[in-house]
Amino acid sequence: MSAEIPYITKPRPDTGLTNGKLGMWLFLASEVMLFGALFSAYVLLRVGAEEGAWPLGSDILNVPIGAVNTIVLITSSVSMVMAWASLKMEQPGRARVYLAVTLALAVLFLVVKVGWEYRPKLHHYTVWLVDGTSMDGHLDGAVDAAADHIMFVPDAEGDEHPEAMQISREQIKRISNFGPSHDNYLGIYWTMTGLHGLHVIGGVIAIAWFLVPGMALFRKDPEMYTNRIEYVGLYWHFVDLVWIFLFPIIYLL
Amino acid sequence: MSIMPDHDHHDHGHDGHHALGFIRTYIFTVDHKVIGIQYGLTSLLFLFFGFLLMLAMRWQLAYPGQPLPILQAIFGDQKVPGGIMAPEFYNQLGAMHGTIMIFLGVVPLGVGAFGNFVVPLQVGAVDMAFPRLNMTSYWVYFIGGVLMISSFFVPEGAAQSGWTSYPPLTQAAPFWGQTMWLTSMVFLITSSLLGSINIIVTVVQLRAPGLTYFRLPFFVWAQLITSFLLLLAFPPLEAAAVLQLMDRVAGTSFFLPSGLVFSGQVQDVAGGGNPLLWQHLFWFLAHPEVYVLILPGMGIVAEIIANNTRKPLWGYKSLVYSAIFLGFMSFVVWAHHMFITGMGQSMSTFFAATTMIISIPSVVILTALLLSLWGGSIRFNTPMLFALGFLPMFAIGGLTGLPLGLPASDIHLHDTYYVIGHFHYVVAPGSLFALFAGIYYWYPKATGRQFNEFLGKLHFWPTLLFMNGIFLPMLFMGMGGVSRRLYDQTEYAHGQAAQNWNVIMSWSAWLMGLTQLIFILNLVLTILAGRKVGANPWHATTLEWSAPSPPPHGNFLEPPKVYRDPYDYDPARKDGFIEQTQPEPS
Amino acid sequence: MLAVGYKAWLPLNASQGGGAIDELIVIIHWFMAVLFIGWGAYFVWCLIKFRARPGHVATPELPKAKASKYCEVMVIVIEAILLLGFSIPIWAAMRGEGNGPKPDEALVVRVVAEQFAWNIHYPGRDGLFGRTDVSLVSKENPIGLDRSEPAAKDDLVTINQMHIPVNRDILVYLSSKDVIHNFGLPLLRVKQDIIPGMTIPVWFKATQTSNALRDQMVENYPLTGRAPMLLLKYHVAMEEYEDTDGTVIIAKGKVLTEDLVADLVAAGFETVRAAPRVPAEIACAQLCGLGHYRMRGYLTIDSAEDFEKWMVAEEAWLEDEEEDDEGY
Predict the structure, then answer these.
(1) Considering the domain boundaries, does residue C5 fall inside one?
(2) ipTM of this predicted structure
């Protein structure tokens, strides 16, 4: 029955579009509004923050890792285009290689993000004391809810391995890891990179589908398959583009 | 209702449809007509449920502190102790009434049901551009709706911070209800996005040969613009919902400033957030949302007026341009909901100006519809009665927006019953009348049977009366300063003054509820025993009336070609009209 | 029956700025009425003149409708006048930054809203507000006032009782401890959201005292019927009512209760002349939780002498408290 719907493979003459392409562009328009709203939230939160309350990105985040991930994503966009171009040039073998490369780079992005960025933050803590000072460091062992103190290993410069120190609960105004609850800067970092990460996962699933089960479609209707790779490519470029905005704004500014 | 007519000799080799079975034909279907009916039935059920919630609230409002045992029997001792509803339960009913009516009721009915059923037919297509996406969007809506309703059964009940869900109140409110509200909204928004993409692509790509943009029925234009509003305005609310969810489950404080004290406890959050951020993101959607609520209705009313005046619509082009302008402007008026938040002069002047400007296309559309009556030969069947009723009711709704849209007069009227009266006039005897009209108008097409005219009129007149009985007093109460969302208005002297209005309003509501049973009866009886009709019982011009009633799989017996404008009514012709598919020269 | 002091239209206006708002509202509604009646008359006329009937056919030509074009232009012009000529000047006067009274000319008050009460904080004779801190907030000290500070020594803090002198500029700084509330004074046409994290100023001047307002709000209330106390809650009798043998059932100015109403009924009265005890209420106008409906504060507008008496009484009470060393 879907075969009777026109302009799935061949574009409609007066619009020059296939249905899928128009659909993908509309979807991306809504995604612009989604991420745009989050960027606006970032601006409002930052402008409204008290003097000195908003940290410098490079003080909290690892810029080189972020830069590496940026290059990874940009490269994956290139390989995505190459995959589509190979299909247009009727070289499905090369297309499969390029798709696999794109997939691998996307997975690498996620691994770097979760392993080198997210995980460490969840183990790193800040303790704010009632006298107004604060300390960054790690918790020594599990926190005993019944005890009236915590064991804390403060961060140190260089090779020093400082001893765990005891901080009584009465002195603690607040304690948080570098997860989203730390402050609004980290909150927006986790939210935006997290949502972006979910979109990367979505792309991974789509590309994996086209690489493996989707090949049946290529055999049945190579033109439709090629068109769909184009649409996934559009989506993938958008995901890359969001990161290209996210990285400088969150990491560098 | 039969999707497969028994007289089907012209089955154009539609692949083994008979073999699809009940589940694929009626449950997990990809046929836009069945999906449209699924949306229709589901949304009508939700509408009725949301209405029942309000009927319960109206007991408390009319007779505060008086027990109603049946409420206790239904909702339990915690929510209705001793037969008197608890104030937090009243707030739950209020928040859920608004949410359900808007997001589970009117929009799915106006866009999901009417958009899905009528648009492919009116553009001459065999189905929507993405049938499987269509099915997905219905089921995502269904899940979102079930999630929303089931929030009544979680510990401490459903969301209770208004349909507007302002933080920090949402943060102080119980955990589960509001969290489920946000989660459910994510599903509903996703469903809307998928549906709007489908409608836009269908209208742009699947128009029949000869159907240029300015030959589209105004109904299709209305749905097209509505879909753009949904596509572009909903994502910021989705972003906001994500942020509020983060505040609730991840300990962030996007909307929470420092130093908050809830029930004596200083909140253990980082602080530094801004409640106004939520309001901006929320209203950025919620204002276009109100045009989503009204545009499909305007489209329906336009179709029915053209058909039942037996003459073309007045100012088709101005209708289209006004609707487009309305769509654009709807994105730049949102902060008129926020005049009283501490806004300075420049911001309030900007938004007041845009709000005044946006009233112009509304005035043009209303005027065009009124002028369309001139020189007609007006048939007063049930769809036309509802469409005509829409006009003065929408006028009251629109006009009462004026004092709200000017910041100075809004000082007195903000958050009073005047606001409730204003928006209900637009949505209840406004949009809902238009949707009733549409159900009556297209029921013969969808079911192949004609409804009972007498029962239709019996539905219309009391409903019109009771709608005014409910909402007109609200304008006066608001003028008197009675705030909205009050569990017991008699705690204020100015509220006490309005107490007798409350009794009138409640009885109007309850009687209006009874009247709707006539509507349900009519719909059911029609399916069981209604008179069978042919393709074009209304003698209308647009493409859907060229397809059989009900249309088969694939809709048209032959692919339609369009030769004329959408409303070529002319008394010189047989039966007073020429169908769009008719090539005969004018 | 329908209207009690507050008619089914605009309430009494007890403020200097309120008149302009009322005027704008009335003008807009005349405009709305003209449009609605105009459209409506045309509408009804069409329905009658162009109804389908034997021998009547539609005329497919579209009317020129010059009149409607002129009307539309007029609508735009009138809306522009309303915005530019009325709303903007009023808004500037009531909200414009820097357009409020100077703090040394006005009586400055802080209002700290919480679920579900209004904390009214006066600076006292020194005109200085004492420091407040969230860490000092407790049940006895709802605004977290640091009483040890010299500026705070003469600060007055009340719960729900706001007194202001008539005919004097009042400058209120609004803040909230928890959620969004709204400081509403319907009789003074004041309405301002209170956003947590922000301190928002609002200013007004009352032109009538509470006593004067109460006198204008006297109505005859039924004593029988379904639930007479529903309308008589928080009302005072405005006349003295005596029993047949001369004993006073309720004196003028006394609050009506269930028992007193029963006594009046037993003595054969069917109505009572009453008025709200506190004519000007502080109404929370933004949903703030389950107690939103009862977040009612009392604004008493005193003459200059009465206000001074009230201040003196409050100061005396404060001194007693300090002597008790309760440290409030």
Answers:
(1) no
(2) 0.94
> pLDDT of C307-328, one tens digit each?
999 999 999 998 887 776 554 4
The residues, ordered by sequence, that sit 6+ positions from B383 with a Cβ below 8 Å of its Cβ are B304, B308, B437, B438, B440, B441
Please judge whether B371 and C68 are an interchain contact, meaning their C-beta atoms are less than 8 angstroms apart. yes
| CB contact residues (below 8 A), chain B span 225-244, against chain A | 231-236, 238-240, 242-243
Separation of alpha carbons B549 and B551, rounded Å: 5
CA distance C76 to B363: 10
Q: Look at residue C91 and tell me if it is in a domain.
A: yes
Q: Which residues of B touch A50 (CB under 8 A)?
A: 272
Distance CA A98, CA C239 (A): 94
Paired residues of C255 in beta bridges: C236
Q: Is the pLDDT of residue C128 over 90?
A: yes
Superfamily designation of domain A20-48+56-122+181-252: Cytochrome c oxidase, subunit III, four-helix bundle (1.20.120.80)
- Topology of A124-177 in CATH? SH3 type barrels. (2.30.30)
Those chains having 3 or more beta-carbon pairs within 8 angstroms of chain B are A, C
Quick one: which of B305, B38, C231, B249 has its CA closest to A179?
B249
Number of domains in chain C: 3
All CATH 2.30.30 domain ranges of chain A, comma separated, are 124-177
Q: Which residues of A touch B252 (CB under 8 A)?
A: 180-181, 184, 187, 190-191
How far apart, in whole angstroms, are the C-alpha atoms of residue B117 and residue B443? 11
> What CATH number corresponds to the domain at position C245?
3.90.105
Q: How far apart are CA B530 and CA B447, in angstroms?
A: 9
Q: Tell whether C186 and C126 lie within a shared domain.
A: yes
Give the pLDDT confidence of C226-260 residue by residue, as tens digits.
888 888 999 999 999 998 888 999 999 999 999 99
CA distance C64 to chain B (A): 10
How far does B168 lie from chain C, in Å, by closest CA?
A: 5
Tokens 């608001």 found at: B478
Token pair belonging to A167: 């901080």
Q: Tell which B residues from 113 to 132 touch A, by Cβ distance under 8 Å.
A: 125-127, 129-132
In Å, how far from its chain's centre is CA C236?
19
The answer to whether the Cβ–Cβ distance between B254 and A41 falls below 8 Å is yes
- Domains of chain B by start residue, with CATH: 31-253+273-576 (1.20.210.10)
Q: In Å, what is the CA distance from C42 to each residue of B8, B375, C39, C57, C68? A: 48, 13, 5, 20, 11
